[in-house]
User: Which sequence fits this backbone?
């Protein structure tokens, strides 16, 4: 492959990641808004949102893995799909017991999915820009998961709003990555224009 062809492949991959990160940020923002707006007033809607969040993560990782060379080449994302689907089912079951159980499940998921996201970002570091934000996001997710597990063991009864901060911070990281890639694309276009 020539350098020009490699540049085109990289540009295509970064365009995909930019769209993907913007989509992930938009979903997280919409989820947080719904969690605050209707979650506290309806246990059924709160439960549906709590199941939807890891289910969405599974779907997003599945599509990104396929789009980024296939799940065989993206094993961390393949594992994240399995972990997130299992979590959606576990949340559905935990909702029948208590919100403390739900928060404990979310905590375990935040740790596992965060570490898998971190591993994906480290693997992509050399070939793709904006992965530093995904590394931070994965690390923060794992730390938040530990805090959720601790909170789940306390007598306090958590609610969906306990998870909204986690989702909001995730949205910020995805948005930062998307903006970082967008600015990088603008700079490359400006350099090409200067070179004629």
Assistant:
């Amino acid at each position: 492959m020539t350098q020009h062809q490699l540049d085109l492949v990289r540009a295509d991959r970064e365009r995909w990641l930019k769209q993907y990160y913007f989509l992930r940020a938009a979903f997280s923002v919409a989820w947080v808004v719904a969690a605050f707006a209707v979650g506290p007033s309806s246990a059924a809607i709160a439960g549906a949102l709590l199941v939807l969040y890891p289910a969405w993560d599974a779907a997003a990782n599945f599509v990104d893995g396929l789009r980024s060379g296939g799940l065989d080449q993206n094993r961390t994302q393949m594992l994240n799909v399995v972990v997130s689907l299992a979590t959606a089912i576990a949340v559905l079951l935990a909702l029948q017991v208590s919100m403390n159980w739900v928060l404990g499940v979310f905590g375990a998921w935040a740790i596992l999915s965060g570490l898998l996201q971190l591993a994906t970002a480290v693997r992509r570091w050399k070939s793709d820009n904006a992965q530093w934000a995904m590394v931070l996001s994965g690390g923060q997710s794992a730390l938040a998961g530990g805090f959720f597990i601790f909170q789940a063991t306390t007598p306090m009864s958590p609610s969906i709003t306990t998870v909204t901060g986690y989702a909001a911070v995730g949205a910020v990281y995805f948005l930062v990555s998307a903006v970082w890639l967008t600015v990088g694309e603008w700079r490359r276009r400006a350099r090409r224009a200067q070179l004629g």
